[in-house]
Specification:
Rossmann fold; 10 helices
Length: 223
């Protein structure tokens, strides 16, 4: 019988489908789940609610430190966190080292219970000893199409071209920041979701995870 993983770290680009995949994997393996990106979105919202500037490190760090006060689950379930404006602000607060430091222990404590976490620096910084690390990506145009449909579904009026431009800007900021940039961990397993359905991505991820836990990853067929 294949050993069940305790911690699965999933990193990847915005709108690559890693969040949906992580939720499915958590349910499948009986693990807790955290969307770490929501921590940064909640930090961004708290910064704006306090009249602060997401580009200001002190304002953002103060907001990040306040997340542990009160009901965190309630803060992370706020529907406004899904908005485009909060998403853009989250990418700005995430570049500040003091923000990332403030949220580090919170994420590690959650992972310690046994969990699937998705974000941008899990395999490289937060959970370097995770049992399995995945890096999920898709072509920018496909990710932009997914995000555009999502935003339109929320009632936002925005063009595809604007979403694509914002996505490319976000990728550049996430990958180019000095502190914990978005990049695959050296031992991460790549999953391209560009042309995969949710079921296909889930099945592919399970095959990788089960093979890694069985010590037989190299036996998987190569695409």
């Amino acid at each position: 019988m294949t050993k069940k993983p305790k911690t699965i770290a999933i990193d990847g680009t915005f709108a690559s489908g890693k969040g949906t995949l992580a939720k499915r994997l958590a349910a499948h393996y009986g693990l807790a789940y955290m969307d770490t990106g929501k921590l940064y979105r909640a930090t961004a919202k708290a910064t704006l609610d306090a009249g602060g500037d997401p580009d200001n490190a002190a304002d953002a760090a103060k907001a990040a430190k306040s997340l542990g006060q009160g009901n965190l689950d309630e803060k992370l379930s706020d529907p406004v966190l899904k908005s485009g404006a909060i998403g853009a602000a989250a990418s700005k607060v995430a570049v500040h080292p003091d923000v990332r430091a403030a949220l580090l222990d919170l994420q590690r404590d959650f992972a310690a219970q046994g969990a699937v976490l998705d974000g941008r620096d899990l395999g490289t910084v937060i959970c370097p000893d995770a049992d399995v690390k995945l890096y999920v990506d898709a072509k920018p145009e496909i990710r932009a199409e997914r995000r555009h449909k999502e935003l339109v579904g929320y009632g936002e009026e925005i063009s595809f071209d604007t979403v694509l431009a914002q996505l490319r800007e976000r990728d550049a900021r996430d990958m180019g920041r000095k502190d914990a940039p978005l990049k695959p961990a050296e031992d991460a397993h790549f999953l391209d979701s560009s042309h995969l359905s949710i079921e296909e991505a889930f099945d592919g991820a399970c095959r990788i995870i089960d093979a890694v836990m069985a010590g037989k990853f190299e036996a998987l067929p190569k695409n």
